[in-house]
């Protein structure tokens, strides 16, 4: 059980009994995930606030020019930093990276970097000398489970919204132009990976493969914090809308039958498609708002002359 978080045996029994009867303590169905509420900044590129039920976080993308890694002279740099403070949940400590924070960073980085979702070669400025370094900071304001799914959606939304400054190259010198001087440049996003998390429960306490309705094991999507505390196993499936399976991550727990794993992957695609379209729609709406704001600012400047 997570440090600082307690759940009574009566509550555990109640949650498990609810799952056996096909419903959850927050009113959702077993295969129903929470709907994200995404707010994209109209003042700052790459800043997103996301609510995932009671889980709340913000994502900020920033960039700077650095020397590339010696073994990858033609590629830019991409890294993710996560912070879950005790303010978000009592199970986390100040100034110490928890296993949860490390897991989130690794999973999201693998989903984006190894699948080439972000084109790192497009971040090269001068081969072997200067490249763009893209940093993503995820800050959790409240924790109620589902952080991997929420983080992935928040990061992909922020990356698609972010724009880096335009530059000029004069020999070995790089001149960075202000946003007002030149239009900023969006990142090259080749596809949108989405993480879907499943949790598994074995109410009868037997170590058997999950094979669907024939056994007692139960699977749910997007567990909340209480459900995460008592689950017997978990699985993260990362896919994109092209039906490409990018990543499977399972850290111990109950065994999963191969046929059932295929079924979960098929179920995940429907959710991935829905979230991808949602991100696309929100980015388009945000661009229209920022375009109108820019035109209004230009008109105000013209009137003041």
UniProtKB/TrEMBL annotation:
Question: What span is annotated as the signal peptide, if there is one?
Answer: none
UniProt KW keywords: Cytoplasm, Exosome, Nucleus, RNA-binding, rRNA processing
This protein's record includes keyword Transferase: no
Q: Which InterPro entries match?
A: ExoRNase_PH_dom1 (IPR001247), ExoRNase_PH_dom2 (IPR015847), ExoRNase_PH_dom2_sf (IPR036345), Exosome_comp_Rrp42_subfam (IPR050590), PNPase/RNase_PH_dom_sf (IPR027408), Ribosomal_Su5_D2-typ_SF (IPR020568), Rrp45 (IPR033100)
Matching entries from Pfam families are given as: RNase_PH (PF01138), RNase_PH_C (PF03725)
Q: GO cellular component annotations, sorted alphabetically?
A: cytoplasmic exosome (RNase complex); nuclear exosome (RNase complex); nucleolus
GO BP: exonucleolytic trimming to generate mature 3'-end of 5.8S rRNA from tricistronic rRNA transcript (SSU-rRNA, 5.8S rRNA, LSU-rRNA); nuclear mRNA surveillance; nuclear polyadenylation-dependent rRNA catabolic process; rRNA catabolic process; TRAMP-dependent tRNA surveillance pathway; U1 snRNA 3'-end processing; U4 snRNA 3'-end processing; U5 snRNA 3'-end processing
**Residue stretches making up the Exoribonuclease phosphorolytic domain:** 34-165, 191-254
Localization: Cytoplasm; Nucleus, Nucleolus
Report the principal subcellular site: cytoplasm
Q: What is the similarity comment for this entry?
A: Belongs to the RNase PH family.
Q: What is this protein called?
A: Exosome complex component RRP45
